[in-house]
Amino acid sequence: MTVIVSASAYLVDLEVDQKRTDAVQSFVKQETVLVEIRTDDGRTGTGYSYTIGTGGRSVLAMLREHLLPRLPGQDARAVEAVWFDLFGSTRATTVGVITSLALAAVDTALWDLKCLRADEPLWRLAGGFRREVPLYDTEGGWLHLTTEELVSGALASRSAGWRGVKLKVGKPSAGQDLERLRAVREAVGPDLDIMVDANQSMTHAEARRRAAAFEPLDLAWFEEPLPADDVAGHALLARSTSIPVAVGESLYSVAQFREYLARGAASIVQVDAARVGGITPWLKVAHLAEAFNVQVCPHFLMELHVSLAAAVPNGRYVEHIPQLHAITDDPLEIVDGHAVAPDRPGLGITWNRDAIDDRRVD
Length: 362
What we know:
- By secondary structure, the chain is of the alpha/beta class.
- It has helices at residues 56-67, 79-89, 97-118, 122-125, 147-159, 174-188, 204-214, 231-240, 254-262, 273-276, 279-291, 302-311, 353-359; strands at residues 4-15, 29-39, 44-51, 132-137, 164-168, 193-197, 221-223, 245-247, 268-269, 295-296, 318-320, 333-335, 338-340.
- It starts with a strand and ends with a helix.
- The mean pLDDT is 97.
């Protein structure tokens, strides 16, 4: 038995390096919630989750007032048991965003400990399918950028050997979106994957109309065209277009993914380890998707998701949006257009404690 002796949580604000906009919001900062769990063998595991600008203090309160007090005395090796104990203790707020984000911060810390005890990296202990995963860029595709800027960014990604770029859509008219996408496709040629992301901004009728307009451009996927709780609408859209429909960043439980997959409403699964409640449920979603012959392209959190996407056979892509570099020491390794999972024991994230202390807001 490896007994948890203490657990703590704190909040760090990370400003964005450049302006980030989509059809419904601007990404102004990342509220990063970190959890540290100490065990009686002298080890400390560090986990984290995040919000985009709001709600970080609510996640912190959930951790400090409800979840962390239950940890001392529990066996850190029993990751599933701890997860279900915490989940069961918060029945009144599950399934819910705040609870899932809080659970994720604990669960990733326990997985960090699990890997440290085994002296293995996360990508291997979580499955070990391969170490490298193709990379696509989102940072050059924000909605406020001009067509010329989109083209320049896509050409730079292609020159760097990256396998794809994601462009935000949701301009006031379909013609505006189409003009931007067509310019990028004509510039990069047929071999670079182009993904588009509407960030839940459209009705079913509008998404179907724009999908029809986009089809000649051979897009890799159409992401979150409709509100995330509109499973029926996504299923109808998926049946009406040849473009794969991608969902998952705004789903918060394994059961929600099951509904999408069972109804044929998702061709690409973008499960986010923070939003689904941690690595434990992330792996369940990935394996569930594999059973439906669906690929996993996780949302955001590239520093963590590179290891998870590498662990499973259906991990297709890692999304490039750098956000943790201000509080970490080792950048994501990129080789020949692939993200390389860290090979050091633990989550593979080297935290800069001084930088974290400088940015603590609690």
